[in-house]
Amino acid sequence: MGISETYTRGRELAVTRPGSVLLGLVGVVLLFDLLVSLATGAQSLSGVGSLVWDGLMRGLVVGLAGVGLSMTYSILNFANFAHGDYITAGAFSGWATTYLIAGLGRADVGALLLVGASGSVFGGTLGIGVTGTPVAVVAGIVVAGISTVLLALLIDRTVFKPIRDEDGITLLITSVGVAFALRYLMQFVFSSSVRGTTAQPPSLSLYLVDGAVRINAHDIALVVVAGSLMLGVHLLLQLTKLGKAMRAMADNEDLAQITGIPTERVVRAVWVVGGGLTGVAGYIFILWKGTLGFNDGWLLLLLIFAAVILGGIGSIYGAIVGGLAIGLTASLSVIWIPSSFSRAAAFFVMIVLLLVKPEGLFSGRSTA
Amino acid sequence: MSVRDDLAARIPGGDTGLILSILLIMYAAYVLVGVGLGYSLRGQFNTIAVLTFYIAVFAMLALALNLHWGYTGLFNIGIVGFMAIGIYVMAFVSKPLYQPGGAAQVGGLGLPIIVGMIAGTVAAALVGLVVALPALRLRADYLAIVTIAMSEIVRFSFLSGELQQFRLFGERVGFGGGSGLILDFTNPLEAFFGFFGLWDAYLGFVDSFQVLVPNNPKPVVDGLVYGVVLLVFVAAFYWLLKRTGESPFGRVLKAIREDEDVANSLGKNTNRFKIKAFMLGCALMGLAGILWLMTSGAVTPNFFRPRITFFVWIALIIGGAGSNTGSVLGGAVFAALLYQGPRYLKNLIDAALPNASAPSGFGPAIAPLVSNVDPTPLLLYTIDSIRQLQLVFMGLVLIWLMHNRPEGMLGHRKETAAGIPLTASQARDKTAETDGGTTGGEADE
Amino acid sequence: MSDVPSSAGGEIDTDEPDGAAGVPDADDAESGSLDLGAGGPDVGEPYPLEVENLRKSFGGITAVDDASFSVERGSLTGLIGPNGAGKSTTFNLITGMLQPDAGSVTFDGEEITGETPHAIANRGLVRTFQIARELQEMTVLENMMLAPKFQRGEALWRSVTPGFRDDVIEQESELLERVWAVLEFFEIDHIAEEYAGNLSGGQRKLLELARALLTDPDMLLLDEPFAGVNPSLERRLLDHIHELREQGYTFLLVEHDMDLIMENCERVIVLHQGQVLTEGSPDEIQANEEVIEAYLGGNV
Fold this sequence. Notes:
The complex is a heterotrimer of chains A (368), B (445) and C (300). By secondary structure, chain A is mainly alpha-helical. Chain A has helices at residues 2-16, 18-40, 45-75, 83-103, 109-113, 123-126, 134-160, 168-190, 217-239, 241-251, 253-259, 264-289, 296-311, 316-332, 342-356; strands at residues 195-196, 203-208, 211-216, 291-292. Chain A has one domain. The longest helix of chain A is centred in the first third of the chain and has 31 residues, at 45-75. Chain A is globular and about 75 Å long. Chain B has helices spanning 2-10, 14-36, 41-71, 79-94, 113-135, 140-159, 188-195, 199-208, 218-245, 248-258, 260-265, 270-293, 306-319, 324-352, 362-372, 376-384, 386-404, 424-428, 430-434, and strands at 166-168, 171-173, 181-182, 298-299. Mean pLDDT of chain B is 86; it is low at 430-445. Classes of the chains: A mainly alpha (368), B mainly alpha (445), C alpha/beta (300).
């Protein structure tokens, strides 16, 4: 009895939701392949473990930055293509601060403020890191967040507000203009060099069956910062009146339509919360990866879009989960496909998702 | 902006006249500036050749994008991906067979250039089909994300080591990976003229050019002639797209852009129309990519960054989406003023101030301003960095346009989507009817 | 005002050998009717449209609940019901814009449930929209030229290739003639070159109807086509709808103007809360207590 019921339900599922079934099958095949290669020794468990860790880290960054994008997308109704450059802007402002504090007296102020453009000063030399220069790092995080908030508000006031009523495509195109202006201004000021920003942080090795997974202090810093921020956002959304308003606006399209254009207060809140998270995400991303260049945010943008779409536009928790999923996809994909295609894999997942279930995973549920 | 319309209306020759006049003005400006700063004749010719080149490629790309966006409402920001496919496939097909010891790491299939061009164009159309089939039913911003993701996937693919080199039909071929492909096929001009048996005539023409440009005039003449060839292609694109737009097919496209449900409810299979329009546009983008890079010595994947896609968008918006004439104008204005213009300016200033050395970074540039109120280093640094600042400027121009004139120069002008002029006089003229039918009349130039 | 002069048909069927050019509104061919060309509707099944057990739910709300009815050929059948009764949803289900959860739709004897809107429209079942959806950035003429079927120029290659384009141009001229005739009939020929976005509400309705007629349908589903149209033109239009009926065209009409329905429709179907409450002649419906209650009984 149980079997035939399962069978009928299975058939029903295959007919009504062939896409999901196919995805499920693909997942099973990949998992099987992984288990086989683990068994034969082609992959080591610790290797996979490192990949998982790496994917989670990347995913946290993407997720954190994605929250802001998800909110703008759903409440302001456009895809902000300048979002990546907000990340970079946050990173530069935060790191300039960190360099300044860490290097004061030891190097030229100008070079510090330009975050060591063109090799004028090196983060490694200054011993920058969360353990080496904690004050500088914390200050950097704070400045990154605040400056991105200010930047986002400024850009909203000058660029997006005058055309608030226009359709999403107009706003999207405009945001491309903002992206250009912002990114190449940063290149003009901070130069095109990619600089190493940190000294080697202390790390420890976790033994996992057949090898070690290295975890360093910056990984921990990323988890701590991202985790606490996400917790903060969660509390904001659940406990405060503003949070409730934001959830309502993001969840309930009908409500948004009835009340018309969202009030400026909610809009400001979106940029403040979103901008703050984005700026910190930018800073902490650079702390974790150890290098900084003017293109870093832009290169992350498509992955962030993938995460936001996966999680469902407007869903804050969806953005976070989506981020983790995308990070893991990009990271773990090297098990099965050549590494040059790992980013392509994440994009491919996003494309498939847009075609199959564009509302994302968390659609229909509340933002909170 | 009726003053503008009046002016535009008063230029003889209609749309073609408008395009030519604006082109003429820009050329004149470039030449005058060059004269003013003592450019040699060689330099002037080169300037004109380069300007023509960029005007032509951006005009072609804007025309193709206009078909997608202006007519059909398809928001394609993967343009650069289709360009890449065009030139890479063409190179793959037309590069000579691999010879060890040469500069080229991989060879191609050794087929004639025209075959390669067709292959590249068709390949771009096919990839367009692959993208279109699932994605065209997506709403505009989702389609945008899919297309840009696809163009990045294309770039990653050409960058990858896996496709760098492999064997096909026993020959060593490949896409060159990160170091790119050397385009060691015959010079396209030579292939073209040779095909008509005019190669010697062409060389003779080059020699006669020595009157104007004494040393080695060939590169200069090649550049100018290639520019002319590209302009011919622009005219061909324009002709093709004008016919496409001014027809029942174009009419359905416009209807799809306005309200796809209505088109469907009138019995039009909108999916099929969208797919065809998308494929045609992608083919043209592939061809434009081929024409852009065919005469370069080499092609690398990192040339095909989304930034070029956005250049084309800016060109289209400047000119006015929905108008073919606007697309050409937009391409021309973008190339002359936003793309090539600032670089030209920089060359001129460099020529004018040969001893000025710009500071190497923003820091050294701004320090004197802060300490001694000396703006010169900053100024020099700014001019030196014009390639970056012109991009900032483009961003600002785009923002300004979307705020103040989203329809661009000619977007407000709606080109009627019909094969004949839709006027009253024909239908009302009963006598004409009994004379045996009204004359349809071609609506193209 | 006598009737509209007829225009050329879909094929090259220009002037009947009349040539009485001086007479205004001269009837060149058919007497007093609007010739839509291509020979009139298919005369086939007695009930071209049959709807059975149609159901559609949105979330928790059942918009159409087990509705069944049929429309007789050559009739002007009314579909009425209070707001929210499910009339527009029913239209959407019939024309393929929505997929029903259950039930079937049969047109001219063939099942069309689940077909795409364009396929259904090509079968000759065409609808107009309640909120007129004119194509704003296109002129009235362009809107109209869009509608006719079998336009050879809709094949891209034909429109572009030098020899074949002439053929397309020729067809464009023919279509233009038909378009002008219909525009004149609807008395909107004076605004033919206006952008549809600039039209008044009533003019848009007329354009909507005119455009639908140009597709040469067998059956038309009209969703409140007369809202905003002036009474005398409304009268003329109804006269011509009746004439078209006599030629075999079938109409299913949604309207809120009860007088119009009662005066013009032979049969009326009443929807209420997604179900077919009843159907019958106008007199029967007017006397029906359930119907009266449905309208008065609390539905906004």
